Amino acid sequence: MKNIFKTIGNYGILLVGLSLAPSCTDQLELAPVSSITAGGFWVNEDNANGALNGMYVRFRDEVSSNFFFWGEARSETLSYGLQASEGRERYFENTLDPTFAGPTWLRLYTIIHDANLIIKYAPEITFNREADKNQMLAEAYTMRAFIYFTMAKTWGGVPIVTEPTEGYDSETTFKERASTNEVFELIKSDIEEALLLFPNNSLSNSKAFWSKPAANMLKGEVYLWTGKKLNGGQQDITIALQALTESASSPGLALLEDFDQVFRYQNKGNSEILFAVRFLDLESGANYNNALYIRDDQIPAGIEPEVEERIGEGGGLNRMAPSQIIRSVYQDEDQRKNATYAEITIPDENGNPDYYGSLVMKYRGFVDPSGRRFIDDIIIYRYADLLLLIAEAKNAIGQDPSTEINQVRKRAYGDFFDSNRFTNGSKDQNDEAILQERLLELAFEGKRWWDLIRFDKAFEKVPSLQERKNQIHLELWPISLSTISLNSKITQNPGYGN
After folding, report:
1. What local confidence, expressed as pLDDT, does residue 35 receive?
2. Are 376 and 365 in contact, with CB atoms under 8 Å apart?
3. How far is CA 296 from CA 353, 366, 372, 420, 484, in A?
4. Model pLDDT for residues 272-319, shown as the tens digit of each residue
């Protein structure tokens, strides 16, 4: 292999070459190797598989923390932790501005660049099986759609790049922001292309690669968004329901009986997962729960023994923590409570329990001689999420969402299900119940902020936004000054200054 491609201008970052895996659908165990050029790299199927795996590795780099910040950190689920927040309070206090704008879109464009390379060059390569080529192209189109969807939800319109940047051309390198509608046109087109290319409706063995069921779930989420936020109305929501229902028909999908086991390192790729980002021992860095757990020496004396046993050995730094709001919504009989967070109290001078701190339990990793390792897979799509999206779509077009909500509740409450059974009500009542169920089910999975935006509830539910209901621009993120400095054609989002 020869020299690696370089993206130019506002997407500039050196891409890292990657070793080749024997299958593009079953594993993601990669190490850096030499670099790549168009003439010397895009020759055979192994080369293409290496490029595909590289796309997933760069995706993992972003999912390790940034997707959580974009998808949840501005919601009501987080508050101050025991450690210095190092500026992270700017998310849940909603004080972002162009100088502190959170993660930028720069590295997302490297993932798009990877997808663009595959879409351009893979069709020219001879594969042993045409189905494998189609699978690869389908994954690239789906990834590109997912990344643009993430950016459109976060910033609105962004520059559209559908060709790999393989040389410098100011007209094509420095692009203006497309409109939000134009970005969604591309997203929908890419999803349709992917769905035509996927050779079957199977999930990948590891669940660490895009598949047709996962792409249909993405399609459903996209059309729910455009149906609710971009005037797509019932037509788009009907399409969403069709795609979500098709996704749910995939063989092998089921809710795990033990909620906690959905997230465990030793249970990767379980039957509830449609698509997750693979983290492996000795192969990847820590995921974002590293900043949501608790340092060992900060576990206090006097902690309740049951809570101390659940926490086990400490690790990470408690820079953000579950808010009082999220800690107050779970019933004791809901098995999701203890699997989602731990609350630490210590006796006060009168022997009464006094709040000390809290931590997130979902992606708590495992302990080995080196300490706690935060390398659980980060789940992008799972079956309970899918069921609740179906319920949301059904309710939006006047259908009864009870079946799907009660499937989720039955697993959550077990023997206490009858007293927690959902009963169909008005559309508004059902929406409130669905949004609340998504909070209970999906807390700290990087979903809550975007759920609040889709339901138009951010200014009602997030304390730092409740007195700012006239500042609707806060639904979008500011674009960082560093991003604008790289491309003079980029304009700031309204409400954040010039």
Report:
1. 39
2. yes
3. 21, 14, 10, 37, 41
4. 999 999 998 877 789 999 999 999 999 999 999 999 999 999 999 999
Residue 4: half-sphere exposure toward Cβ, Cα within 13 Å = 20
Give the whole-angstrom CA distance, residue 23 versus residue 13. 27
Q: How far apart are CA 273 and CA 360, in angstroms?
A: 20
Whether 382 contacts 274, CB under 8 Å: yes
For residue 434, what are the CA distances in angstroms to 207, 242, 360, 391? 26, 19, 22, 7
Taking the C-alpha atoms of residue 372 and residue 68, their distance in angstroms, rounded to an integer, is 20
Q: Per DSSP, what are the bridge partners of residue 136?
A: none
pLDDT at 124 over 70: yes
What burial class does residue 219 get, using C-beta atoms within 10 Å of its C-beta: 0-12 exposed, 13-18 middle, 19+ buried? buried
Six token digits for residue 260: 């906690």
Q: How many CA atoms lie within 13 A of 251 on its CB side?
A: 5
In the predicted model, is pLDDT for residue 22 greater than 60?
no
Q: Which residues touch 456 (CB under 8 Å, ≥6 apart)?
A: 228
| Residue 248: partners with Cβ closer than 8 Å, 6 or more residues away | 383, 386, 387, 390
Mean residue pLDDT across the chain? 91
DSSP 381: E
The CA distance from 448 to 27, in Å, is 29
Cα–Cα–Cα angle for 196, 145, 496, rounded to 5 degrees = 160
User: Which region, left, alpha or beta, applies to residue 244 given φ > 0 means left and ψ of -120 to 50 means alpha?
Assistant: alpha
For residue 202, the tally of other CB atoms under 10 A from its CB is 15
Residue range 236-263, pLDDT digits in tens: 999 999 999 999 999 999 999 999 999 9
Residue 15 has pLDDT above 60, yes or no: no
**Which residue is listed with tokens 């940034």?**
66
Residues 481/487/488/492 CA torsion (nearest 10 deg): -40
Question: What gap in Å lies between CA 238 and CA 306, rounded to an integer?
Answer: 47
Q: How many C-beta neighbours within 10 Å does residue 350 have?
A: 6
Kindly state the DSSP code that residue 12 receives in the 8-state scheme: -
Length of the chain: 498
Distance CA 420, CA 456 (A): 26
Longest alpha-carbon distance in the chain: 76
Per-residue confidence (pLDDT) for residue 498, from 0 to 100: 64
Give the integer Cα–Cα distance in Å for 357 and 111.
37
Phi first, then psi: give them for residue 273, nearest 5 degrees: -90, 130
